[in-house]
Design goal:
The complex is a heterodimer of chains A (about 120) and B (about 120). Chain A is built from no helices and twelve strands. Chain A has about 120 residues and is mainly β. In chain A, strands 2, 5, 6, 10, 11 and 12 form a six-stranded mixed sheet that branches. Chain A is globular. In chain B, strands 2, 4, 5, 6, 9, 10 and 11 form a seven-stranded mixed sheet that branches. Chain B has a four-stranded antiparallel sheet with strand order 1-3-8-7, with no helix packed on it. Classes of the chains: A mainly beta (about 120), B mainly beta (about 120).
Chain lengths: ~120, ~120
C-alpha cells in the first residue's frame, strides 16, 4: 500500500539557518509523482513543487531546493537561510494510480516548521 | 480572481443537524476533490468527481454525500452531524486525473465545528 512518512513532527530553527524536511514514501507503482505543499498559519494549501518518478534531477528555486532519491524512496526539501515567513506546516504528497487508472494524493502527516527571529 | 472558492469559511452547528458546504472552481478543471483535515493536521481524501462523475470514494460514512451539478461545482452535504465531523474541509481541483502529474489547487477551507 502507498504511504508517505514525514518523521519530523515539528522543527524549530533560528532565522537564517538552513533546514531540511524529510519525506519518505512507499509505492508499488513504477510511475508516480511527488509533491510538496505549504500550509501557512492562514490555512490555505500552496503548491510548491512536483517530481515524477522518472526524473531524479534535483531542483532549486530561490532559497528552496529538493532532493529526490529513488534508491532511498526519499524526496527531501531544504530551505536555505530560513525566514520567519517560512513558518508553516509542510506536506509531502504521493500521487499514485498508474495501476488503477485514477490518481489520488496520499499526504504525509506534515512537518510544522517554526522559524524564530 | 479566486481560483477555488468555498462557502462558508466557518460553520458552527449542533449535533444531529444537516449542513452543506459549497465549492466552485473557475480554472476550467475537469476534476474536483473533497479532503478532510483533522485537528492533528492530517489530510485525507474523501471524494473525487471527474466531469460530474464520482471516481474516488474513500471509506466515508454514508452521512456524507457529494453532489456535482456541473464540473465547476462540487458540494458536500453532511447529514446528522456528529462531534467527530469537526474538522477543516478542503475542496480542490485539478486537470486530467489520468495524469497524476497535475497539481491540485486547493480552496481556503471550511472550518466545521459541531457542538
Amino acid at each position: 500500500a502507498q504511504k508517505v512518512t514525514q518523521a519530523q513532527t515539528e522543527i524549530s530553527v533560528v532565522e537564517k539557518e538552513d533546514v531540511t524536511l524529510d519525506c519518505v514514501y512507499e509505492t508499488r507503482d513504477t510511475t508516480y509523482y511527488l509533491f510538496w505543499y505549504k500550509q501557512p498559519p492562514s490555512g490555505e494549501l500552496v503548491f510548491l513543487i512536483r517530481r515524477n518518478s522518472f526524473d531524479e534531477q534535483n531542483e532549486i528555486s530561490g532559497r528552496y531546493s529538493w532532493n529526490f532519491q529513488k534508491s532511498t524512496s526519499s524526496f527531501n526539501f531544504t530551505i536555505t537561510a530560513s525566514q520567519v515567513v517560512d513558518s508553516a506546516v509542510y506536506f509531502c504528497a504521493l500521487s499514485e494510480g498508474f495501476t488503477s487508472g485514477t490518481y489520488k494524493y496520499i499526504f504525509g502527516t506534515g512537518t510544522r516548521l517554526k522559524v524564530l527571529a | 480572481d479566486t481560483a477555488v472558492s468555498q462557502t462558508p469559511k466557518y460553520l458552527v452547528t449542533q449535533m444531529g443537524n444537516d449542513k452543506s458546504i459549497k465549492c466552485e472552481q473557475n480554472l476550467g478543471h475537469d476534476t474536483m476533490y473533497w479532503y478532510k483535515q483533522d485537528s492533528k493536521k492530517f489530510l485525507k481524501i474523501m471524494f473525487s468527481y471527474n466531469n460530474k462523475e464520482l471516481i474516488i470514494n474513500e471509506t466515508v460514512p454514508n452521512r456524507f454525500s457529494p453532489k456535482s451539478p456541473d464540473k465547476a461545482h462540487l458540494n458536500l452535504h453532511i447529514n446528522s452531524l456528529e462531534l467527530g465531523d469537526s474538522a477543516v474541509y478542503f475542496c480542490a481541483s485539478s486537470q486530467d486525473p489520468e495524469r497524476g502529474y497535475n497539481e491540485q489547487f486547493f480552496g481556503p477551507g471550511t472550518r466545521l465545528t459541531v457542538l
